[in-house]
Amino acid sequence: MNQKHIFIIKPNPNNVKIETLIVKNMQGYPYEIKYTKYPKHASAIAASYQGCHHRIYAVGGDGLIHEVVQGLAGSDNELVILPAGTGNDFIRTIANTRDLETLLKKSLKLPAQPIDLIKANDIYCINVFCLALDSDVANNVHKYRQIKVLPRSLQYVNVLVRRFVKYHPQPVTLRYQGKTIYKDRLLIGAFCNGKYFGGGFKIGKYADVKNGLIDINLVPQLKKSQLPYYVTLLLTEKLEQGKLYYHKQLKEVEVESNKEVNIDGEVYPAGIYQLKIVNKAINVVLFEKND
User: Fold this and answer.
1) How far, in Å, CA of 93 to CA of 88, rounded?
2) Residue 13 pLDDT more than 80?
3) Structural domains in the chain plus CATH codes
4) From the CB of residue 85, how many other CB atoms can be counted at a distance below 10 Å?
5) What is the pLDDT of residues 245-268, one digit of tens each?
6) Cα–Cα distance between 206 and 197 in angstroms, integer?
7) Distance (Å, whole) CA 106 – CA 287
8) By the 8 A CB rule, do 157 and 197 touch?
């Protein structure tokens, strides 16, 4: 049976352009275009092809990818990511370009490879599980008007600084094998499978989607005078130079937060999350990445 190519897309004004691109490049391949109609519909669409060994294309941002992953994890289907959202963070881990047509053409010549996922309770995470201020920023960035002259990454810094003034750090506890290994009021808390968050910040510098480990990156509450220094370290990918920076890699960890968390760009409630690496949980087309 020929492998079918299934494109999952959320309705938006760019759909005509995207659909034209798909039709142009998929001549000779069996394919379908599926538009989502309600929240989490992408998960249901992806799950409906269990056992088919098809290629499922997530055409959208990190939120759509997150939904599709929930329906694909553990199946023999393959995932191709075509970034058409705002942040497009996970694609930065596996590709050197975010151009849709370039990636689509390349994907047709590349095999899928098994990669790891983080499982947070019953939720799969392909990119980053975050909490503290970075979760607060991710959950609220859409509420702020963008400054046109700023690039995407600096839009995030702009919101980060503005939220920092209002943010009241709450204690976060990490436990490993029943023992508390970290407890503090956090400013940054990123548990990484992929490397990037916030529209291009490389927070998971040492993360690897194939190494079977959660890459943990923490920065505790800072004084206002310390914020510029740590933002600079984050921008220049030198966060490890900060004396207050905490880094560890583990196969599993329990995280307790009394504030909302963010998983792959999606908001989830406060609580206790059992984070665990699931090895080779999903088959993904990996593009060239010099990193």
Assistant:
1) 10
2) no
3) 5-117 (3.40.50.10330), 125-278 (2.60.200.40)
4) 19
5) 999 999 999 999 998 899 998 999
6) 14
7) 8
8) no
pTM of the model: 0.90
> What is the helix, strand, coil percentage profile of the chain, to 5?
30, 35, 35
Indicate the Cα dihedral angle 219, 255, 176, 203, nearest 10°: -40
Name the region of 99 (left: φ>0; alpha: ψ -120 to 50; beta: rest). Answer: beta
* Inter-residue contact 246 to 272 (CB < 8 Å): no
Q: How far is the C-alpha of 18 from the C-alpha of 235, rounded, in Å?
A: 32
Q: How confident is the model at residue 1 (pLDDT cuts 50, 70, 90)?
A: low
Residue 187 contacts residue 169 (beta carbons within 8 Å): yes
* Mean pLDDT of the region 54-76: 95
- Beta pairing class for 214-220 and 201-202: unpaired
